[in-house]
Design the sequence.
């Protein structure tokens, strides 16, 4: 069984409540003063294999993925360098309160070749099996077009978010806002999204000229930075969980070796069309436990509870935090009047983040309360059970 990769984005505890003000400047550079705790970038994994001209996608690709958050924004940065062509950095997201393509289920095919998520002569993104639930994806190409895909359990749609602009994003680090006209309907998840990308300016213009190539995507790296609106993504003001996965893919859906979290032992071996990540080594999904509680009670902040997917068909997952050492934990489902419906757990658990599976078997369609008590702290979330 693969060991799940859990990486946290949590704000600093201060005076009984958690607060976070992101310390990020959207300029296509991972500056040293942007890395650390308290709203700064936290590493979510790296592609550690050196890039060479004779393997992988050559002297271009990913170095490291970062995440940060504030009370209103979520940041994801991909340190690395894009080849100035149709190749693209893709970011897949599993968002709370949404139900997309389940992990391990082939992504549905998206007809046409107008986006990098479509179908081409050699293959397509359709059929790829990810290790996270795919709710949405966003890609930026080497020609600096920004494109998005939105998934349900069985369908997918995709389009360019440039609203007719040939290059909605510059390559000089200047931040651009996705046009509002492009983020309506299914694409409203990306309303208010800002993007910045900085490319090397040396004659070679490849990843060897990216300062991050010498330090594993560390301070000084040139990067593709996304600033997402938390409200648009549907992230609650308290605790929430986002799972992310990054990849470097050709414009016709051929996957390179570069993915984050990376595949142990794969090196520069390209993955080809429609890879099955569930059959590869490691776990290609990074978990962000995002906690921002400027308006939540301290109990809710400390427990850092989330329920996903929600609404639920079948099985849900309750995630929560045990902070400061081993404590007694109780997890219960009640009706809206507080009457016990099911006890899920009563145990003493070690410090850290924990996941608990909730089967919908035996639960009638309706709305319930999930209560997590850690020591003397209690957090509550509503859970909607559907057919």
Sequence:
């Amino acid at each position: 069984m693969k060991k799940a990769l859990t990486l946290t984005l949590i704000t600093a505890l201060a005076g009984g409540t958690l607060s976070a003000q992101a310390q990020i400047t959207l300029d296509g550079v991972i500056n040293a003063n942007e890395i650390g705790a308290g709203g700064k970038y936290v590493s979510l994994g790296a592609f550690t294999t050196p890039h060479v001209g004779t393997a992988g996608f050559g002297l271009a690709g990913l170095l490291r993925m970062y995440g940060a958050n504030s009370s209103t924004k979520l940041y994801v940065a991909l340190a690395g360098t894009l080849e100035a062509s149709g190749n693209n950095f893709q970011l897949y997201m599993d968002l709370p309160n949404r139900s997309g393509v389940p992990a391990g289920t082939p992504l549905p095919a998206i007809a046409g070749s107008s986006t990098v998520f479509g179908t081409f002569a050699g293959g397509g993104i359709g059929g790829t099996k990810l290790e996270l639930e795919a709710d949405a994806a966003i890609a930026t190409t080497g020609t600096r077009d920004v494109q998005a895909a939105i998934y349900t359990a069985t369908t997918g749609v995709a389009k360019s978010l440039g609203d007719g602009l040939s290059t909605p994003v510059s390559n000089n680090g200047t931040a651009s806002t996705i046009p509002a006209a492009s983020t309506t309907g299914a694409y409203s998840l990306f309303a208010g999204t800002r993007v910045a990308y900085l490319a090397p300016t040396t004659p070679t213009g490849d990843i060897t000229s990216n300062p991050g190539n010498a330090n594993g995507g560390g301070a000084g790296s040139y990067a593709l930075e996304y600033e997402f609106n938390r409200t648009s993504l549907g992230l609650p003001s308290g605790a929430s969980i986002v799972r992310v996965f990054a990849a470097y893919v050709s414009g016709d859906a051929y996957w390179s070796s570069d993915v984050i979290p990376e595949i142990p032992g794969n090196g520069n071996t390209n993955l080809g069309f429609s890879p099955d990540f569930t059959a590869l080594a490691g776990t290609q999904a990074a978990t962000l436990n995002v906690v921002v509680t400027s308006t939540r009670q301290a109990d809710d902040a400390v427990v850092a509870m989330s329920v996903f997917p929600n609404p639920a068909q079948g099985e849900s997952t309750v995630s929560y935090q045990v902070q400061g050492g081993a404590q007694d934990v109780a997890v219960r489902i009640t009706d809206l009047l507080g009457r016990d419906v099911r006890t899920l757990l009563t145990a003493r658990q070690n410090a850290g983040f924990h996941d608990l599976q909730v089967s919908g078997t035996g639960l009638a369609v309706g709305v319930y309360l999930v209560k997590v008590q850690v020591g003397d702290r209690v957090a509550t979330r509503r859970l909607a059970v559907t057919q």
